[in-house]
Amino acid sequence: MISIIVVILPTFFTKGVSRVTVNQEIDLSLILNDKNDEKDVKILFFGYSGCTDICTPRMLAIDEFYKTLDTKIKERIGVEFLDISAPFDKELPNEFAKFFNEEFKGIYLSLDKVRDYTKPFSVYFSKSLTDELEYDHTSHIYLVKRNGTKKELRYIYNSYPYDFEQLTIDIKELLDERK
Predict the structure, then answer these.
(1) What is the CATH number of the domain that holds 94?
(2) Does residue 114 contact residue 93 with C-beta atoms inside 8 Å?
(3) Can you point out the beta strands (E) in the chain?
(4) Distance CA 122, CA 140 (A)
(5) Residue 44, Cβ neighbours under 10 Å: how many?
(6) pTM here?
(7) Which structural domain, as residue segments, surrounds residue 54?
(8) Which ranges in 45-135 belong to alpha helices (H)?
(9) Rounded to whole angstroms, how far apart are CA atoms 19 and 3?
């Protein structure tokens, strides 16, 4: 009985501890890289195209959150979906991201880039033991800020359902830093 309580308690009391502050500079060219991209902050999500168990509900939740943001905030933030599966079709990650919202961007990671991009974010992923077409992976949201020519990983939101109230506060704070 005690072991059941230990497993259940963390899920009830994650509010307030579901965000980790990182403040780590990252040097990854595919994130915040578009020359025409004026975005100051990006919400990142790592997953794989076609994932129905983890990615689809999380991306739907991110889309619902994104729709609630003020237009002025949306002008300065973006959402990027990074595909950990290195699909054969390089357009698949972008199509998957845009399925949820036309403003979202999907990023194809080649096999040699997957580890380079997942390591700084401590993204866990592995082929599923029960289904060879599936991956087991983390479902965190990462908040990255452009700081001049540098990029900084500022926050990781690691509990689902995500604390979108805290995410909104953090986005506004990061955007105010840039003024």
Answers:
(1) 3.40.30.10
(2) no
(3) 19-26, 41-47, 77-83, 105-108, 125-127, 135-137, 141-147, 150-157
(4) 10
(5) 22
(6) 0.84
(7) 2-177
(8) 55-68, 71-74, 92-100, 111-118
(9) 25
pLDDT of amino acid 34: 61
| CA within 13 Å, CB half, 4 | 1
What pLDDT score was predicted for residue 29? 75
Distance (Å) of CA 133 to CA 88, 109, 150: 13, 17, 36
pLDDT of residue 155: 95
Distance, CA of 62 to CA of 25 (rounded, Å)? 24
Q: How many residues are there in the chain?
A: 179
Residue with tokens 């579901």: 18
Q: Give 140: exposed, middle or buried? Use CB within 10 Å, 0-12, 13-18, 19+.
A: buried
10-residue mean pLDDT profile of the chain (179 residues): values are 39 60 84 70 93 93 97 94 90 96 94 88 86 84 88 92 95 85
The count of domains in the chain is 1
Q: What CA–CA distances, in Å, run from 55 to 50, 67, 72, 164, 175?
A: 8, 18, 27, 17, 27
